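Hello K.,

You asked for the raw outputs rather than the summary table, so here they are, unedited. I folded two proteins back to back in the same session to keep the settings identical. This is the first:
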Amino acid sequence: MTIQHDIPINISIPHDEINIFIPILQKGFCIKTYSGSSIMEFLLQCGLSEEYIVNNIKTVFLDNKPVDDLINSFIEDDSTLSLSGAMPGLVGAVMRIRSPFQSFRNTISYATTPNKGTTTIRKEAIITLKLFNTVLSDTAILFLRNGIFIDGKTLLSLIKNNKNIYKKWFIQYNDNLLHNSEAITLMEKHHNDLIFVKLVVVN
């Protein structure tokens, strides 16, 4: 899958319709960053405050491995990062950052690499980010307003499956407003590409 820098889509959407994008934010969307960035560094670059990260992001998975140290865990090209608030139950307690039960998952936890960020050559990277529960509700608008990469197939399905809601949207490409059929044609053409989508949320 490739990023098409010439396919930026701006979508003006009412605030009460943002939930349409929730399944995409949970399933995973793409963000451009740099390989060798720590998770903490990446989240700060995304616009999250250190206070929010420390106090509200309680469960983190990097490439399906639970993370305990956001400063010494590093993102690479094609990494998958999952963020969540505190998950319920014993499993949630075990998977939590710096959990008192982390010894139960030593064999699957992400192995930190202290000082790696100071020696790694930074290169542009694309990662998949997934948001869940309170982190999802807290940060959805932030990420959607900043812009995320969505594959053309997913965006095409979103437009086709929400034709009635589409009447409330304004989709803009190259400073031109697209009709429903024009948006569908554009997505079909770039079915296998990553498309940069930025939301303008209106009341």
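The second followed immediately with the same parameters:
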Amino acid sequence: MPDIRNRSFTIRARVTRSSSAEEGVLAACGARTGGHCLFIQNNRMVFAYNRIGRVTRLVSAIELPVGECELAVIFKKTAPNQGMATLQINGAMAGEGSIALLPFRQTVAGLDIGADHGSTVCDDYAAPFHFGGRLHHVDYALGIDRDDFKRAAAIEARNALTDQ
């Protein structure tokens, strides 16, 4: 599963829905003890992040269009394990909010696409909550702004100088 802790990340999904009633999980990672989930419910995009039982929910301010659309959650790290998440529908801003991330891997449960097959990340739906439309893809893009990446690069640079 993608390691989103303490870094900026983007989750992007392309879906096609034939009616506004088609809803369900697009991507779910984790369980009741921690994790994240991107889903459609009540014709809105929802991103939920569970930090040891404290759930932060971002719900799109606008309804989703019927047909093909691209949904995105863009998280920008602003401090260690904290940042701002923006919801986008077809590239337009649809909501935002602050999220505090866990500093450690929150679960041994893997990543589910198109449904949530384990203990759910939040209590907004019952598992498996299969997505009723067509899910073309879900992509994760991970930032390189984690502090340990900077330390690792500094160590590699020092080692390269030592090897000369």
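Strands lie at 9-17, 24-31, 34-41, 44-51, 54-59, 67-79, 82-89, 92-100, 111-113, 134-142.

Happy to rerun anything if the numbers look odd on your end.

Regards,
P.
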